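Service request form, structural biology core

Requester: graduate student, group of Dr. S.
Request type: structure prediction, single chain
Budget code: on file
Notes: please return the result as structure tokens.

Sequence provided:
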Amino acid sequence: MCCGVCSLLSCLGCLCGNAPCLLCACCPSTRSSTVTRIIFCVFLFMGTAVACIMIMPGIETELKKIPGFCLGGTSIPGIENKVNCDILVGYKSVYRMCFAMAAFFFLFTLIMIWVKSSGDPRAAIQNGFWFFKFLILVGITVGAFFIPDGTFTAVWYYFGIVGSFLFILIQLVLLVDFAHSWSRAWVEQAEEGNKCWYGALFVSMFINYAASLASVVLLYVYYTKPDDCTANKVFISLNLIFCIAISIISILPKIQEVQPHSGLLQASIITLYTMYVTWSAMANEPDRNCNPTLLGIVSSNSTASTTGQVVQWWDAPSIVGLVIFIICSLFASIRSSKNTHVDKLLLSDGKEGGDIPSDNVEDGVYRAVDSETETVNYSYSFFHFCLFLASLYIMMTLTNWYSPSTDYSTMTSSWTAVWVKISSSWVGLLLYLWTLVAPLLLPDRDFS
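Core staff response, request fulfilled:
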């Protein structure tokens, strides 16, 4: 928005220039590393928006007009004219759009390996040439829509499963960092004399735990039966026990000695996120008796059809997942963490804090500060790898982790998706537990 008030020529120059050029007089001073991450996240959000549009109700009618995109049902030999194009075109579009984003970010993952400072020639590629990057992304997207059907969807589904599992863990790490920064900021405000911030911390913690408790009750009500749905009962009960355990551990005296900023606020956010992942997992259970939110496009009967009906991909877990994804992506772009455990997990040096020089103004226009002349503030390659995983996560979230049936006439939901999500919640809880107990288990290591 800021560049909208700049001159047209300046904006055109910025498209081919570097990140610092993308600021103008109305923008606050910032670092070029932050600007770069924000712009790459904007690329990701634009691709996500396009993928969302492709599965909106009624859009499949327009997608079927793409030459050859669903000609005769599909190009897969043997099942022509048997495919439900109303379902398949939206599914194929999301997979190809997200494949393009994943390929784009994976390309930069490889290019940016071992970049140590802004003096590396590749740093100029990272922080500039935005117009050409956009053209590359558009080109990959157009090419993706010409990928033959074959086994592409089936193979990319498993890439999505693995990538989404890893991204769920990254989201949890970012949430831990967010909660840590939140708690530290409010505690510092309270220690300066305004004790109301302690009350605000308590209210926030109470709301998180209340929402978690309410979600547990709702999960038991809607996703279990008195004489059925044993798996769901086990999932809910185990995660409830695990969340209570980490909440107690987070406030133990021994933990507080080595982790004075850990507390129930962080634990409450992790608890709420774990309950969301549990809900999302059970929303993929293929048994409709234990999963009332299973969408109508999913059927155990391969002859099921949605012809004449509006194809609906959206459900509540997907919408919540998108909101969490956006929050975590934005936070990853602007984060300036003092949590050394999280910095190590995210391959960041945590040195982006501190004051920004006031002499970065030229002719009334702010210029972003290059704070990476000696060393980069974050791993370029790992940042792009996270966006690569985010693209796969978006692909799976928008399609509800469903996969086509053998004859492509309907969609199926499998136990694979359920176990991937549940296991990711357990691994995530273990990661959080490690950030709490690591200083106790490894006293010789510097965790300050």
